[in-house]
Amino acid sequence: ISDQKPLGCWSVKHGQILTCPVVCNFETHEYIAVHDDRVLRIWKNEDINLDKAFKATLSADVYRIHSLPQGGPVVLFQGGAVRTLDVLLEAPQQDIENVVSGEAIRWSGAFMEGQEPVLIFTTEKDGDFFVYVQKPKLSSLHRYKLEQQESAKPLCFTAHITNQTVTLLCLYSNDSVYQVLIPLQQDTEEEEEEKEEEILSKSLLLNLSVSGAVLKGTSLVVLDKDHVAVLGSLAAPGNEPRECLTIWNTKFQTLQTSKELPLGTSGQLWCYEEKFFLIHGKVLTVILYKCETSSLAAAVGKLKDSQTPDVSLFLNWNTLEDEELVVSFQSQESVALKEESRMNLRSRRSSVAGEKPATLPVGQFLINFKNASNYVLENELKKLMARAPTADLQATIGCVVTALTDRCKRNPKYYPQNFLQQIIETHEFSYSLCPDLMAVALEKKDLPLLQMCLERFPDIPEEVTYTCLKAFLSISEAHLQTLDVNVDSVICYIDVEMDDEEVKSEIVENGFSAEMDQDMCDTKLPKESHGRGDGGSCPVGLQKAALLNAVLHSAYTETFLLPHLKNLPAQQAILFLRYLYYLYVKCSEKVNTTLPGIRSPTINQIMDWMCLLLDAQFTVMVMLPEAKELLSNLHKFVRAQVRFYSELNKIEGSLRELQRQNLLRESQTYSIEVLEII
């Protein structure tokens, strides 16, 4: 998620439909999917074609597959039957019984109780709701009827198991959360028959209202025994409803914290390993949180002083008008509360002015220095990074850079170029830790910093990469001469011109020279084309070449980058292609096709970018007269390469035989042999 790159993509054939969410088998590291209700597919990450993956056609329709870290995958059929995946694969066409009769499954969840998997699902029929509890390995099944609620019905369910008791939470349409307790026990057959007709009573756990505002919930998840998260629309009298993610303390009936989601959501909320997952606008948002033991002081303190980050049990979504330092730090570090007593926290609030900075949380520390002078701020930030614990160092650095970029946006005259470059050079950093950094650098035209980011960050979005490329190509060579650009990637191989005559090497390492290229193509290249399109001399200066090399090093996905490259101005596209062609020729002059220097582009990077640029701009280049010679020379050079390697392939067998003979020959024997290459 941090790199924003797709690691794998699989698709079913046209006309087939994935009918339940894909899960991962934690034991075998395989993916499990069901398409068209009953066709099971199992594959591994290295498999490319889903159509060639393992396939099993089942005898009944599947509702959902649940994967448990220690219990393996469990399959729930639409008829209510449950099978472990191992049992199902032994006989895929085995008969599957119908457990429910005319009931539609509304929700299901799988849990581990000791060493046994437990599957719980709810059904609906004619307005009545039922709860099923199954232990597939023990063939144990219990059915309950949920107590009806006048003028309200369940919207969603969630559950957890503690001390042999299932706690089922139900979000109802009357903006309330109810709790149902179901004991897990081994009953006799007679008791099981009785339990089928048992009606489960429920108790009111939480009213989703605060200060006259009511939360219309759409999704509910359990965080721990005292806290739940609800996603929904918060409606206050006289105001437009606002979609929010809220966290509630069920023990003290209080709203712990909330976050407005102005771009809208899909209405779904997932929680896994202390992370929230939700769709915000068109983006998958991941929010880390951490629960601590609930206390009345914390609940009341949060309501009294919602601006104090120290008393938050979770992420502090502090808005403080234009200041979002706490938000940034808490979401990256995932720790919102230090392990200190509430008494200490209360005493800290009363004496924060005399507190040493080292004892403050990073978010509060940065807020305290919000209005400090530039010199004081930078010195304090340096001290903060120096004393940050190793485990929190990256998050701290991200928060520091965010503080600097925020000040840059508030004060256009302020830009700590040297400090930012020092941070990027000496620490592990990534784009996602501070997305505004490269935006500010582009605004300030800080090309050396952009070069460092492109070379070091693994997760730069393709749109930002394209923006940097466009900026590098548009900047004048004269202006680049005034910048401190790192040219280590080009200084060892780029051609240098003296007195209008190019200094060129006469060594031919890869079996051909420029003259050979012309002979093989039966074409003479005009002398005046040198320096423009034949790859003889570099079409850009040292500094611009170094910047373009940084772009070649950046990670990208072709599908996302191609639409942006289509918008590259024609003249810039031709210049970039000329430089790529020059690099291609340079690489081909070397036996190992490797350019010398530090962070020099590889032959694969050069070829990939060349193909990508031609795909995006080919129609434009064909129509431009100034690109005709470049495309012609590129075609001739590639054709010469193909012919050359074709000739090498013809003697590959003889060369291998010669290598084998050398290995078999005794080192002390002297002989002269003649090998005829046919």
From TrEMBL:
The gene is Nol11. Keywords: Activator, Nucleus, rRNA processing, Transcription, Transcription regulation. It comes from Sylvia borin. This is NOL11 protein. It is found in: Nucleus, Nucleolus. Residues 1-290 form the Nucleolar protein 11 N-terminal domain. Residues 368-676 form the Nucleolar protein 11 C-terminal domain. The lineage of its organism: Eukaryota, Metazoa, Chordata, Craniata, Vertebrata. The keyword Transcription applies. One of its GO terms (cellular component) is nucleolus.
